[in-house]
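Hey all, quick one. A colleague (J.T.) asked me to put the D-ribose job into the tracker so the inputs and the C-alpha cells live in one place instead of scattered across chat threads. No bug as far as I know, just bookkeeping. Sequence used:
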Amino acid sequence: MKIAIGCDHAGYKYREEIIKMLEASGNEVNDCGTKDGNSVDYPDFAHPVSKLVDSGKVDFGILICGTGNGVAITANKYKNVRAGLCWEEEIVSLIRQHNDANIICIPARFVHIKQALEMVFTFLSTDFEGGRHGRRVKKICI
Ligand code: RB5
C-alpha cells in the first residue's frame, strides 16, 4: 500500500515508529515530516498528506498532532478526504467500516505509542462495509 504520513512536533516520535512498522511490512511510505521536536504549525504538514490522499496518489494518510484535532480539521477541508480522529481501537474499526475514512488522525498527547501502532494496523486492515454506509458517505460532500 502507498501511505502518506505527517505530524507536528507533538507527534514526530510516533511518526518515526509508525514509519518503521509500515516499511517493515512492505508498504511504500511518503514521509511529509516534521522530523524533530522543534515547534511547527500542524497545517504545514497536514496539507501535504491531505493533498496526496485527495488526489489519489496514496491509498491512505496518517496524521498526528497533540490532540489530533488540528490535523483532522485541516484534512477534512479536502473534498475526497475523510479524516477520523481516533483514540481507541473500536473507533478505528468504525471509521473504516462505516465512514470509509482514508486518513487516521492520532492525538499523540492522549494515546501511548503502542496503542497508536495498533490503531494504525487496524486502520489499514479494516474494510469499508458499503451498503447503507455507502449511501451515507455519498451524502457528506456539499
Ligand atoms: C501543538 O502544541 C498543538 O497545538 C498541536 O499539536 C495540536 O494539538 C493542535 O490541534
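Adding what we noticed when we looked at it: Residues 8, 10, 42, 65-67, 69-70 surround D-ribose (CB under 6 Å). Residues 2-138 form a domain with the Ribose 5-phosphate Isomerase B; Chain: A, fold (CATH 3.40.1400.10).
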